[in-house]
Amino acid sequence: MRPLIAVTGMPSSQVKGLRRRGVVAAEKVLEAVFRAGGDPVILPPTSRPVGPLLARFDGVLLPGGADVDPRRYGGSRRGLSTYTAEDIQDVFDLAVARQVVADGIPLFAICRGMQVLNVALGGDLIPDLAETCVPHRDGYHRVALTPGSRTAKVMGSDEVVVSSYHHQAIRRLGSGLTVTGRAIDDVIEVVEHEHAPVLAVQWHPEDNADLVAEQQALFTAHVDMARAAVAAA
To answer: Active-site residue numbers?
Structure first.
Protein backbone atom coordinates (compact mmCIF):
# COMPACT_ATOMS: atom_id res chain seq x y z
CA MET A 1 0.00 0.00 0.00
CA ARG A 2 1.24 3.49 -0.88
CA PRO A 3 0.64 5.87 2.05
CA LEU A 4 -1.76 8.72 1.33
CA ILE A 5 -0.04 12.06 1.97
CA ALA A 6 -2.06 15.26 2.36
CA VAL A 7 -0.25 18.28 0.89
CA THR A 8 -1.90 21.52 1.98
CA GLY A 9 -2.71 23.68 -1.03
CA MET A 10 -2.36 27.42 -1.57
CA PRO A 11 -5.29 29.50 -2.85
CA SER A 12 -4.43 31.33 -6.06
CA SER A 13 -6.35 34.07 -7.81
CA GLN A 14 -4.92 32.97 -11.16
CA VAL A 15 -4.35 29.47 -12.51
CA LYS A 16 -3.60 29.06 -16.18
CA GLY A 17 -6.54 27.44 -17.94
CA LEU A 18 -9.10 28.38 -15.30
CA ARG A 19 -11.49 31.31 -15.43
CA ARG A 20 -11.69 31.56 -11.66
CA ARG A 21 -9.62 31.01 -8.55
CA GLY A 22 -7.84 27.74 -7.85
CA VAL A 23 -5.78 25.85 -5.28
CA VAL A 24 -2.20 24.90 -6.13
CA ALA A 25 0.80 22.97 -4.83
CA ALA A 26 4.35 22.86 -6.15
CA GLU A 27 4.76 20.14 -8.75
CA LYS A 28 8.23 19.28 -7.45
CA VAL A 29 6.83 18.59 -3.98
CA LEU A 30 4.22 16.21 -5.41
CA GLU A 31 6.83 14.47 -7.56
CA ALA A 32 9.18 13.99 -4.59
CA VAL A 33 6.38 12.45 -2.50
CA PHE A 34 5.50 10.09 -5.34
CA ARG A 35 9.15 9.07 -5.83
CA ALA A 36 9.30 8.33 -2.10
CA GLY A 37 6.47 5.82 -2.44
CA GLY A 38 3.56 7.98 -1.31
CA ASP A 39 0.45 9.20 -3.10
CA PRO A 40 0.15 12.99 -2.67
CA VAL A 41 -3.28 14.62 -2.46
CA ILE A 42 -3.72 18.40 -2.49
CA LEU A 43 -5.84 19.42 0.50
CA PRO A 44 -7.56 22.79 -0.11
CA PRO A 45 -7.90 25.22 2.81
CA THR A 46 -11.29 25.05 4.43
CA SER A 47 -13.10 26.40 7.48
CA ARG A 48 -14.31 22.89 8.35
CA PRO A 49 -12.83 21.09 11.39
CA VAL A 50 -9.53 19.56 10.33
CA GLY A 51 -9.66 16.46 12.54
CA PRO A 52 -12.05 14.44 10.34
CA LEU A 53 -10.23 15.57 7.19
CA LEU A 54 -6.81 14.48 8.40
CA ALA A 55 -8.09 11.14 9.72
CA ARG A 56 -8.23 9.94 6.11
CA PHE A 57 -4.50 10.45 5.55
CA ASP A 58 -1.38 8.57 6.61
CA GLY A 59 0.89 11.64 6.60
CA VAL A 60 0.75 15.40 6.10
CA LEU A 61 3.11 17.75 4.27
CA LEU A 62 3.06 21.49 4.96
CA PRO A 63 4.91 23.05 2.01
CA GLY A 64 6.46 26.43 1.32
CA GLY A 65 4.44 29.41 0.17
CA ALA A 66 3.43 32.91 1.15
CA ASP A 67 4.50 34.43 4.47
CA VAL A 68 2.66 33.79 7.72
CA ASP A 69 0.84 36.98 8.67
CA PRO A 70 2.78 38.51 11.62
CA ARG A 71 -0.51 39.16 13.39
CA ARG A 72 -0.77 35.39 13.90
CA TYR A 73 2.05 35.62 16.43
CA GLY A 74 1.40 39.02 17.98
CA GLY A 75 3.27 41.11 15.40
CA SER A 76 2.23 43.81 12.97
CA ARG A 77 2.08 44.11 9.20
CA ARG A 78 3.08 47.76 9.41
CA GLY A 79 5.98 48.39 7.06
CA LEU A 80 5.93 44.80 5.79
CA SER A 81 6.42 44.89 2.03
CA THR A 82 6.08 41.18 1.38
CA TYR A 83 3.14 38.98 0.40
CA THR A 84 1.32 37.28 3.26
CA ALA A 85 -0.99 34.31 2.91
CA GLU A 86 -4.75 34.67 2.73
CA ASP A 87 -6.47 34.46 6.09
CA ILE A 88 -8.12 31.13 5.30
CA GLN A 89 -4.75 29.54 4.51
CA ASP A 90 -3.09 30.75 7.70
CA VAL A 91 -6.03 29.61 9.84
CA PHE A 92 -6.21 26.24 8.08
CA ASP A 93 -2.48 25.51 8.10
CA LEU A 94 -2.13 26.43 11.77
CA ALA A 95 -5.05 24.18 12.66
CA VAL A 96 -3.51 21.34 10.63
CA ALA A 97 -0.16 21.73 12.38
CA ARG A 98 -1.74 21.63 15.84
CA GLN A 99 -3.87 18.62 14.93
CA VAL A 100 -1.10 16.47 13.47
CA VAL A 101 1.13 17.05 16.49
CA ALA A 102 -1.73 16.24 18.86
CA ASP A 103 -2.70 13.11 16.91
CA GLY A 104 0.83 11.91 16.17
CA ILE A 105 0.33 11.98 12.39
CA PRO A 106 3.71 12.01 10.57
CA LEU A 107 4.46 15.55 9.40
CA PHE A 108 6.97 16.98 6.96
CA ALA A 109 7.13 20.79 7.14
CA ILE A 110 9.01 22.76 4.47
CA CYS A 111 9.97 26.47 4.68
CA ARG A 112 6.65 28.23 5.41
CA GLY A 113 5.48 24.89 6.78
CA MET A 114 8.19 24.92 9.45
CA GLN A 115 7.28 28.50 10.32
CA VAL A 116 3.59 27.53 10.57
CA LEU A 117 4.49 24.64 12.87
CA ASN A 118 6.48 26.93 15.14
CA VAL A 119 3.69 29.53 15.36
CA ALA A 120 1.06 26.81 15.90
CA LEU A 121 3.01 25.63 18.95
CA GLY A 122 3.28 29.11 20.47
CA GLY A 123 6.51 30.37 18.94
CA ASP A 124 7.10 33.44 16.81
CA LEU A 125 9.05 34.53 13.73
CA ILE A 126 11.43 37.16 12.48
CA PRO A 127 9.02 38.74 9.97
CA ASP A 128 11.69 40.22 7.69
CA LEU A 129 15.10 38.60 8.03
CA ALA A 130 18.02 40.99 7.50
CA GLU A 131 20.41 40.10 4.69
CA THR A 132 23.60 38.41 5.86
CA CYS A 133 26.50 36.55 4.31
CA VAL A 134 24.10 33.64 3.76
CA PRO A 135 21.85 33.83 0.66
CA HIS A 136 18.59 32.94 2.40
CA ARG A 137 16.42 34.89 -0.02
CA ASP A 138 17.42 32.97 -3.14
CA GLY A 139 20.47 30.74 -3.33
CA TYR A 140 22.36 27.74 -1.96
CA HIS A 141 24.14 27.61 1.39
CA ARG A 142 25.41 25.20 4.01
CA VAL A 143 23.50 24.00 7.06
CA ALA A 144 25.16 22.33 10.06
CA LEU A 145 23.02 19.55 11.54
CA THR A 146 23.23 18.31 15.12
CA PRO A 147 25.13 14.99 15.05
CA GLY A 148 22.82 12.11 15.90
CA SER A 149 19.66 14.13 15.31
CA ARG A 150 16.78 12.59 13.37
CA THR A 151 17.42 14.84 10.39
CA ALA A 152 21.16 14.16 10.32
CA LYS A 153 20.47 10.41 10.37
CA VAL A 154 17.92 10.71 7.58
CA MET A 155 20.21 12.80 5.38
CA GLY A 156 23.30 10.77 6.24
CA SER A 157 25.44 13.81 7.04
CA ASP A 158 26.08 16.48 9.66
CA GLU A 159 26.45 19.20 7.02
CA VAL A 160 24.35 19.72 3.90
CA VAL A 161 24.05 22.25 1.08
CA VAL A 162 20.49 23.47 0.66
CA SER A 163 18.33 25.47 -1.74
CA SER A 164 16.98 28.49 0.13
CA TYR A 165 14.15 30.90 -0.65
CA HIS A 166 12.76 32.73 2.39
CA HIS A 167 13.03 35.92 4.40
CA GLN A 168 11.10 34.93 7.52
CA ALA A 169 12.70 32.70 10.14
CA ILE A 170 12.03 31.23 13.57
CA ARG A 171 12.82 33.53 16.48
CA ARG A 172 11.26 32.06 19.65
CA LEU A 173 10.76 28.30 19.58
CA GLY A 174 7.32 26.78 19.96
CA SER A 175 6.53 24.30 22.72
CA GLY A 176 8.16 20.90 22.32
CA LEU A 177 10.51 21.94 19.52
CA THR A 178 14.30 21.63 19.50
CA VAL A 179 16.75 23.21 17.06
CA THR A 180 18.86 20.61 15.26
CA GLY A 181 20.19 22.65 12.34
CA ARG A 182 21.51 26.16 11.72
CA ALA A 183 23.11 28.21 8.97
CA ILE A 184 26.48 29.85 9.68
CA ASP A 185 24.70 33.14 10.51
CA ASP A 186 22.81 31.25 13.26
CA VAL A 187 19.44 31.26 11.46
CA ILE A 188 17.40 28.22 12.51
CA GLU A 189 17.17 25.74 9.62
CA VAL A 190 15.87 22.54 11.25
CA VAL A 191 13.60 21.78 14.19
CA GLU A 192 12.44 18.49 15.64
CA HIS A 193 9.66 17.71 18.11
CA GLU A 194 10.25 16.03 21.44
CA HIS A 195 7.74 13.23 20.77
CA ALA A 196 5.74 13.82 17.56
CA PRO A 197 6.96 12.23 14.27
CA VAL A 198 8.05 15.51 12.65
CA LEU A 199 10.62 16.48 10.03
CA ALA A 200 10.87 20.25 9.56
CA VAL A 201 13.36 22.20 7.44
CA GLN A 202 13.64 25.85 6.44
CA TRP A 203 14.95 25.17 2.94
CA HIS A 204 13.30 23.68 -0.17
CA PRO A 205 14.46 20.05 -0.54
CA GLU A 206 12.07 19.55 -3.46
CA ASP A 207 14.13 21.90 -5.63
CA ASN A 208 16.81 19.30 -6.28
CA ALA A 209 15.45 16.12 -4.69
CA ASP A 210 15.43 14.48 -8.11
CA LEU A 211 19.20 14.96 -8.31
CA VAL A 212 20.48 14.95 -4.70
CA ALA A 213 19.86 11.79 -2.71
CA GLU A 214 20.10 13.44 0.72
CA GLN A 215 17.29 15.84 -0.18
CA GLN A 216 15.05 13.08 -1.53
CA ALA A 217 15.80 11.14 1.66
CA LEU A 218 13.69 13.61 3.63
CA PHE A 219 10.60 12.77 1.57
CA THR A 220 11.36 9.06 1.76
CA ALA A 221 11.73 9.23 5.54
CA HIS A 222 8.38 10.99 5.84
CA VAL A 223 6.59 8.43 3.67
CA ASP A 224 8.28 5.62 5.62
CA MET A 225 7.03 7.15 8.90
CA ALA A 226 3.53 7.29 7.43
CA ARG A 227 3.77 3.66 6.33
CA ALA A 228 4.99 2.61 9.79
CA ALA A 229 2.14 4.50 11.45
CA VAL A 230 -0.38 2.60 9.32
CA ALA A 231 1.25 -0.73 10.16
CA ALA A 232 1.15 0.08 13.88
CA ALA A 233 -2.51 1.14 13.86
So the answer is: 111, 204, 206
